[in-house]
Design brief:
Blueprint lengths: L7 H13 L5 E3 L1 H11 L1 H22 L4 E10 L5 E5 L10 E5 L4 E14 L1 H68 L5 H36 L7 E3 L17 H25 L2 E15 L6 E15 L7 H67 L5 H36 L4
Parallel strand pairs: 1-6
Antiparallel strand pairs: 2-5, 3-4, 5-7, 7-8
Helix pairs in contact: 2-4, 3-4, 4-5, 4-6, 4-8, 6-7, 7-8
């Protein structure tokens, strides 16, 4: 699953916004934030480099099929020539008796080129097959990092939108409270309201201002986290879109998740390793090898000082066949069989978890959807009640306590709605992840 956008206009827009961000805050959509992360997120870059490392490892293993040529050379000066025992019978002496003799010359020079090349090796070909599967695992791990990045950015983006909505609600509440404060202060001047009534409204105004300050701090923290995931500078000023878009109970087709695909790929890797072990137990290894060079012998004393070189070369084939290795291979095969059984159980567990988590996410999303509908109606009713109570308070038909109570009810309805939206967006995002539909 590739999340990186290839749309040139989007990339140009990201570049323009990046330059303009140092001047004033720009509104970024969720898609633009994700596109920026796909290009600049450091975790994704690390994961991409790890994919390249695996690709180079695959080439390294394949390179073992090529012939290897090495150049060797050495020089030896014998301060004492090695001894050999010669049977005296060679020279007509008695049988069973030997005489020591020194052979050779003190100066020995050897220079050659050696070649080796595998003709067939079960371990080598098994390793090549295994690296192909490891490359698939690396690709899936990269996609998993992409998916997690998408998930984390969406979560932070939704949180920023929710906090922004809360601040907007507080701005509205603050405006209502300021108007109420002016009315109560006017009534106090006319001796129609007490000083304590004014103090109550002043307290409410200050409480709203304090909550707004706290929310603005939280918003900045969330935006900083979003910038980190997007891979942009912390000094760049960005804003999220104010309008929160949520879909109406979409049904997502269940697909294989990346965790399940990773488990399947690991099964293939274990099967390949098991097959290699079985082959190495019964099949021989064969290597071609050879050498060509020169051997020099020298003597540096009179009257026969000399240094002569003689060519030497050979080519051969070497076979290796395992007969008995202490049942080590059998034990490894038993381990792989147990790992395969665990892999089957892991895949079954992932399926069961997916079914359970999908059901729970659907229930949570449905509850949040109904709560949002109820909260929207409650906000409308609370706003009507607050407006009517304020008018009645101006006409002396309602007490200040009634106005403050209506204001608290309105704020609670607003918070309930925001909470329901948070739960809905998170449940919908979780449902996408569980069903393999994050894009």
């Amino acid at each position: 699953m590739k999340l990186v956008s290839t749309n040139i206009s989007k990339l140009l827009l990201l570049l323009i916004m990046s330059i303009a961000g140092s001047i004033e805050a720009q509104e970024w959509s969720l898609d633009q934030c994700i596109d920026s992360a796909m290009l600049n997120n450091k975790k994704l870059k690390i994961s991409k480099n790890e994919m390249e490392i695996v690709a180079q490892k695959q080439k390294e293993v394949k390179a073992n099929l090529l012939p290897k040529i090495t150049a060797n050379g050495d020089y030896k000066y014998y301060t004492d020539l090695p001894y050999q025992l010669m049977p005296m019978s060679v020279f007509g002496g008695p049988e069973g008796q030997y005489k020591e003799a020194q052979f050779g010359v003190p100066h020995n020079i050897n220079a050659n080129l050696q070649l080796s090349m595998p003709l067939y090796s079960p371990e080598l070909y098994g390793g090549i097959e295994a690296t192909k599967i490891v490359a698939e695992v690396s690709e899936l791990q990269y996609q998993k990092t992409e998916e997690q990045t998408y998930f984390d950015i969406a979560n932070l983006y939704y949180n920023a939108q929710i906090i922004k909505s809360q601040i907007a609600f507080l701005d509205s509440n603050s405006a209502n409270s300021e108007r109420l404060l002016k009315n109560v202060q006017l009534l106090n001047v006319q001796l129609l309201a007490q000083k304590t009534d004014v103090d109550k409204v002043v307290l409410q105004v200050r409480q709203i201002a304090s909550k707004k300050m706290i929310l603005e701090s939280k918003y900045s923290q969330v935006i900083n986290g979003l910038k980190l995931l997007m891979g942009v500078s912390q000094s760049q000023a960005i804003e999220v879109e104010a309008s929160i878009v949520h879909t109406e109970e979409l049904a997502y087709a269940t697909q294989s998740t990346l965790d399940f695909r990773l488990a399947e790929t690991k099964f293939n890797l274990l099967s390949s390793e098991l097959n290699t072990l079985k082959k190495s137990r019964y099949l021989p290894s064969a290597y071609l090898y050879g050498s060509y060079g020169t051997m020099g012998y020298g003597y540096d004393e009179q009257p026969n000082d000399f240094l002569n070189f003689y060519a030497i070369g050979f080519v051969g084939v070497k076979f290796s066949y395992p007969i008995f290795n202490g049942t080590v291979t059998n034990k490894k095969i038993n381990q792989k069989n147990l790992e395969l059984k665990n892999n089957d159980l892991q895949k079954e567990l992932l399926k069961d978890q997916q079914n359970t988590q999908t059901e729970n996410a659907l229930l949570q999303r449905n509850v949040a959807q109904e709560t949002m509908k109820t909260s929207e109606l409650q906000i409308e009713l609370a706003q009507i009640i607050y407006t009517q109570t304020t008018l009645q308070q101006k006409e002396g038909l309602a007490k200040l306590t009634d106005v403050l109570l209506a204001d608290n009810v309105l704020r609670e309805a607003q918070q309930d709605y925001i909470g329901a939206v948070v739960e809905y967006l998170k449940a919908d995002l979780e449902l996408k992840r569980i069903t393999g539909n994050i894009k």
